[in-house]
Amino acid sequence: MLSPVTDTDGAPFWEYAARGELRVQACGDCGEPRFPPRPCCPHCQSFASEWRPVSGRGRVWSYVVPHPPLLPGYAEQAPYNVVVVELEEAPRIRLVGNVVARAGAPLDSVAPARLRIGARVRAVFAGGLPQWVLA
Amino acid sequence: MAGPGIKDATAIVGIGQTAFARHLAEDERTLACRAVLAALDDAGIAPGEVDALASYTMEETDEVELAKAVGFGDLTFFSKVGYGGGGSCATVAHLAAAIAAGQATVGVAWRSRKRGSGPRPWTNTAVQLPTPAQWTRPFGLLRPADEIAMLARRYMHEYGVTRDHLFNVALACRNRANQNPAAVMYERPLTREMYMTSRWISEPLCLYDNCLETDGALACVIVGRERARDCRQRPVYVHAAAQGLPAQHHGMVNYWNDDPLTGPAWAAARHLWKHADLTPEDVDVAQIYDAFSALIPLSLEGYGFCARGEGGAFTEQGALETGGRLPVNTGGGGLSEAYVHGFNLVNEGVKQLRGTSTAQVPGAAACLVTAGEGVPTSALLLRS
To answer: From A66's CA, which of A28, B266, B274, B367 has a CA 20 to 30 Å away?
Structure first.
């Protein structure tokens, strides 16, 4: 399974995730949240930023169900779901993830037929990654 | 005040290609040389006259290797365009701009690729492909098909686009390939039954929503309009050209802005039509980038052939077929002729305006060619 290959801008997201916290980057001056993280604010060009805690509540914006050929590890769990979740507090921030039965459960632990665009989900954490459970 | 610009200042006067197949024995450099020499022969221009080159950043054969192999003269302009299939039309656009500006006189654009017998790029996890992979790959969003399927699902949900609409796209491409002896799928008809029962690649996209995996190479030759009149073939003029990278765009994973269902096509189209004497209604035939079937309805919206959300419905009643509202991908496209990062769409556009396509649209005088939607893109408006 692939681990995130982080960069300077993205590293704080993963550090918070490893502690079980979902945080997003926001401008330290105008307050606008942005994703993916980047050096400065596209709205006001400020280089000041903060990592703002969010509730972890969101809705499924879209999802796919990959089938092989896939990388080993993923192929063994296929077909599984990958979702894009719109965060309740910042609808333009849409996080890619997996809906699972419970924190740490396999990628195929929820039947794809149970997923719908618009379904409410909440974040859980396992192995340093955010995951999503149906709320 | 704007200068004279590139409108009709240059023309494509030569096209060349190798065979297309799942596996070709020759290496990419040899295939590149063959396609380039075929295009120059088609134009009636000697290799020593070439002074400009353009290709893709993903092209394996660089300018030095190509120039010394086929015997080019002094090169005074060479450029490469990024973003995979988004760069196809931009290679021609860069040459048109360079020639119109006086930086060169004879340009060659090319793409050579062994995507059929070579490795799938996404299987190389040691390199970061041009997507923010940390936000997607760990969760199993691994391949271009998965990334575009995510947008396709949302697109289908918002606008009521169905799998039958995507089938209409796949079928039109396959039907044209069935008329084109050079197409990989020449002798392989497609039925609705085959489509609806095929295996999934990434739901909601099935096997037939995905392009081929092909070995092959193509090239074209572009010169100024004065020179074009003296060439062997009827000139096909570059009427307008554009690249497009819209604000807050994120490449293949364009999930993080206000409106993910409008993409680079919209930005390229705004520039293209602003600089053209033509409108979408004047386009007789279109070659629309089709790494995935869903990119065609999206592009139909982006380039203004229909309103937002109407791309699926546009495909109904045989609209994309010969004799329909807008025949597309008349050589079979990436879905059924060959997937060579969209360069076969450029050459097919030239064939239509010469009147030599295997699925000729009678009297075709204007052809839109587009590059990959879902990545920073480019487009050409060609006229005879």
So the answer is: B266
Cross-chain residue pair A82–B140, CB shorter than 8 Å: yes
Mutate to test the interface with A, among B123, B143, B200, B255 (most CBs of A within 10 A): B255
- Cβ neighbour number for residue A132 with a 10 Å cutoff: 25
CA neighbor of B48 nearest in space, from B19, B29, B75, B27:
B75
| Cα distance between residue B222 and residue B241, in whole Å | 13
3-state secondary structure (DSSP) of residue B53 = strand
Question: How many domains would you assign to chain A?
Answer: 1
Whole domain around residue A125: which residue ranges?
11-134
Among candidates B136, B154, B204 on the partner chain, residue whose Cβ is nearest the Cβ of A96: B136
Indicate yes or no: pTM above 0.95: yes
Domains of chain B: 10-118+212-383 (3.40.47.10)
Instruction: Find chain A residues with C-beta within 8 A of B120's C-beta.
Output: 69
Establish if A1 belongs to a structural domain.
no
Degrees (nearest 5) of the Cα angle A107, A113, A115?
70
Is B239 in contact with B382 (CB distance < 8 Å)?
yes
Is residue A4 in a domain? no
Q: Could you report the per-residue pLDDT of A33-75, keeping only the tens digit for each?
A: 999 999 999 999 999 999 999 999 999 999 999 999 999 999 9
Question: Above 0.95 for ipTM, yes or no?
Answer: yes
Nearest CB to A62 within list B139, B154, B250: B154
Amino acid at B317: Q
The catalytic residues of B are: 289, 339
Q: Is residue A26 part of a domain?
A: yes
Tens-place pLDDT, residues B290-319: 999 999 999 999 999 999 999 999 999 999
Lookup result for tokens 């299939």: B85
